[in-house]
Amino acid sequence: MTSKDPAPRDPVPRTWLYVPGDRPDRIGKALDSGADRVLLDLEDAVAPAGKQAARRTVLDTLAAGHTAYVRINAPATPDGADDLALLASAPGTLAGVRVPKSEDPDELRRVADALGVPVFPMLESALGVENALALASAHPLVAGISLGEADLAADLRVGGGDALAWPRSRVVVAARAAGLPSPPQSVWTAVRDLDGLRADTLAGQRAGFFGRSVIHPAQIPVVHEACVPDPADVAWARDLMSQLTEHGDAAWIDSAGRFVDKAVVERATWLLATARTDDPAADRPVKEGNL
Q1: Which domains can be identified in the chain, with CATH numbers?
Q2: Fewer CB atoms inside 10 Å of the end CB: C or N, the chain?
Q3: What pLDDT is attached to residue 288?
């Protein structure tokens, strides 16, 4: 397990819920939704005429003591510059920022230095994907990377789906090469297709992703359930970790006759990091109209 991976006592985020920054009514519901992370959105979810009002609402939300993340506008744009100026004076409850349209490691470093909070670059163009490792390792405050698949598909002139298989693998490899957690998947835009969401989330995990961004509270329990590791695997991981003191750094054969080395221990560590102490069945169902 690398230094930036969450420890087992700090469960890996499964859901990142976007909420428009100019909708205080929805922000309150989002904060109570059960999402692991709430993203106050100043970018795509806010019309140009509403940007200033959204900034005031975001600052008021943070000033009220609510912990949240913020997706800013692209830093090179005038709106992005205004976002950075505002958030530079934000309260300590600003947990981090997602940085869209990330392509330039130097620009990402300027954002991290200006805000002093964890930054999460979003790769939404061919150049962003090509620079994935440079962005992932640009600054000690880079805490994770992800794809913005709608913008990326448009830039690549593809229809999405299998056409994005290589960029998806690229971002997974870059994240792990930089010692970052497995990236979350992009949003599932078919809000009412919860079966499709679950299947796609499981497929994403097999491809190296964990968790995902969501745009409606109804998606939260589906993603949480999909992220629950097999109880037998968790029991195996706990048993293996209990034997580490006895065996130290040496490889050994466990009681079931299986070879155990560093790679196996790392897999067990990851399983425990993704295991939750809360009951996934207790994730509150949310009606379609709640956000």
Answers
A1: 15-227 (3.20.20.60), 231-274 (no CATH)
A2: N
A3: 36
